[in-house]
Amino acid sequence: MLNKKFEQIQLSHGGGGKEMNALINDMFFIAFANPILTSQEDSAQLQLSGATAFTTDSFTVDPLFFAGGNIGKLAIAGTVNDLAMMGALPEYLSCSFIIEEGFAIKDLQTIVTSMAEEMQQSGAHIVCGDTKVVPKGCADGIFINTSGVGKIIKQGISVNNLQNDDVIIVSRDIGRHGAAILMARDSLSLESDLTSDCASLWPIVEQLITANIDIHAMRDATRGGLSAVLNEWAMASNVDISVDEKLIPVSTEVQGLCELYGFEPYDLANEGTFIMALPRAAADKALEVMTQYCHCDQASIIGYVTDAHNGKVILNTPWGSSRYLDIPQGELLPRIC
Length: 337
Fold this sequence. Notes:
It is a single chain. By secondary structure, this protein is α+β, with helices and mostly antiparallel strands. It contains ten helices and 13 strands. Helix content is 31%, strand content 23%. The protein has a seven-stranded mixed beta sheet with strand order 8-10-7-11-9-12-13. The chain is globular. The two termini are 32 Å apart.
């Protein structure tokens, strides 16, 4: 077995010979087994019909392991979520590893196992991939690239579709992933059970689609957090969005870290939290569906689309004042995904 012979990745694991074949067969093929992948063709042969969503992403999180996940779980959830936010059923994924010489085999196995477990949440399959091993010092451990293909089940979900009086719903408390990475990166020892929200969102989205909810726009609030999503929507649809600060769910742990570091929770990354815009008449039914499923018990309406056309996001504070919620600038948390 691979683990008995090697404890660390060697350059030979990327050389195309026996060691690389052992890595692929004894680890990747076992974890990701499906007929398309194990046929070992140069390209995956897929059966596609109708409108199809396609996405790609690269993951370079630091640290690789954090409370609530690791780079592998993040790679699968992130790619699945990009498809889900377009109303697409995740079907096929590609996966490429760039691994640094000396990387621990046991850590790679943990990452790969978490990827296989996370795919069970959506039913997606890795059907093709690639492995490269680079000399020590060239990759900072491991980088993962994933691409995803999925069948669009619900048409018309778009950043361009926000309409006057649409309500804005957030699926759960915000900023958890960014805060969890901050704690792990700076080795903060706080009396807290804070974990990343890293999770696949397709099961929740599938229920919303099944319930025939009229979704106008949907986006997972990753880099740039809630602020980035709302500003992108406002500009793309040429509308103003008004949100109430007191209605935005933020955990006490995240709020405490923001106060300690001078951050705003609206700018922090999420990896299992999504924002949705939909007609006011559909909001109660959407909330009813969402609160019945994992991690959505805090789902709430936080604002609405106004009849102005300035492409701005207005944050209304609990003290009766208002300010623009700008798109984040600068580098808050390096390597959060």
